């Protein structure tokens, strides 16, 4: 059933009201029985692993010591078995919460007291807000609803979200799930959302356990006959360190995520789930993951069955566990691990180590602490799902994620007095499920674009295309008539999951089918201003619309979530002031000699329609630098040994040769609103390093802030820069260095500042 409403910000779905009437006796989710250590079970309540006063590692060791090898092996997979003799229930590890509690994984189901959950905008949309506090707040709401559903017996506590892969190629069908193409932005999103999901409980306790996926260099699903199960991503050490691994490192080091998922693909000839350099040495060793490593679903089977990486299944089981894999999403390890132990390919200690990581996370979640209702978050229940506050946040997230790409001649905002009749046209003009993208659940309710606009004016609706494929133009004439009759025309076009999705990469970037023809014909026929609204996860080449003088404004709304229609209408009417190359080539940097233009805004050298970070407002902002250093001396560690020849060649210091923790600086920036309308401004700060032979000197995002500035006033913003992280570069060997010399800091579009970095070499340099 589709639930619709006129004002989602004030809306309580009728099913929540009826559920509350039925459940007025309790809101604690008493349907959830203790996972383990039930105080009513006299056989287990005195066991050492059930004693909450003991350190978790002691309890984990005691539990593992009580398990047989066969029991241990059946706990290595996502649908872990029950161990009745120890009072432990079975557990499904696979749940999803990409932008709201989802029923994609078998660990979560909707129904009964929980018919739906708040569905926020798809990640690519929310990331466009450049608002770290919003991302964390969304995570807190999602985990509130997840805990409530766990207490009610409808969900687990381990959520395999977020997806923080770099959106390298715009044709990738899953780019919508990610924070986008910039590694700094993706890293900040990852850490913020994870902190919101996992909470800040005492003693490393977790509200829910998040998981950053898919590690690493995974951004191809099914393109031109090449699929993710067979793809070997050939990645340089430079690109791995400088781009692909950045958000995962931020997720682990800054977000303290409880899990990382390895991907289907190979990286430089090795399956990621069987590569000890990636798993054991990097994630757990260098980054110090406090949690478990899980495979993407059936990827252990894939490396044996599809990639033929090992000769026997037992070798595949042994290779993955010894590489650092702790949990298999799929049956492979349950079937073949015992054989690997019997053949001497794997020891029981290896199995114990994997189990220690998964059980530790379960204990941090309180799953071995007895009665759930007596624990932190045990009071959450049905009335904590789809609350008015949660739905208002979904609306606010959609408003902040919408990007105004073009506003020719002040077309927007529309006026309720001048634009009393609006033609609403296009295949996405009255959609519901399309707005929540993929890896979504069941939304609390929907407001479609048509319904949202109808709150402001009378509407004339023509879908014109039966779906986004838009394969014929039989209904275009009716759309042209509607545009002639209306005071303004809004075309809601774009994509949906039939065009871009998991295992569905695009072959081109244009609007599907005859959508472009529809836009152009309606624009010619329209009596009033024409606004093009693009609903999509991946980018669309709308050069034709940008260059069409009859199209006054262009909005990109992503997949805006359950309240998308309200948010779109609020921007349209000014209630909200908005702030062919082979896909398998994994190189980020351009190579003109080979006709390769590069990937993402940092390295792409070709023409663009709208640049990264581009977005307009209904008002104007001006930046002024109030305080910032113009030079900085980089001290060396006393133990450093600098090769003078290498330093003379590169003019850059290894970050390991200096105390990076002490190298921070602040940019104090005054943001002035010189227009006549209050507005929220996204301040973007980029840096450009001194030219070097071994790295790119193009600009890269190093910081951003969201600030609300009333008309005619100014606000001071401080953007912190970490020298090693934000002014550093990565050479062709994957070594991070800090170039000496003039670094250009680009603040917004109207301000530049130079910072000179000089090495304090002293007597440390060696020849």
Automatic annotation (TrEMBL):
Give the protein name, as stated in the record: Fibronectin type III-like domain-containing protein
Q: Which UniProt keywords apply?
A: Glycoprotein, Glycosidase, Hydrolase, Secreted, Signal
Biological process according to GO: arabinan catabolic process; xylan catabolic process
Naturally occurring in which organism (per UniProt): Ziziphus jujuba var. spinosa
Q: Where is the signal peptide?
A: 1-31
A single cellular component GO annotation: apoplast
Q: Name one GO molecular function term.
A: alpha-L-arabinofuranosidase activity
Where in or outside the cell is it found? Secreted
In this chain the Fibronectin type III-like domain maps to 681-751
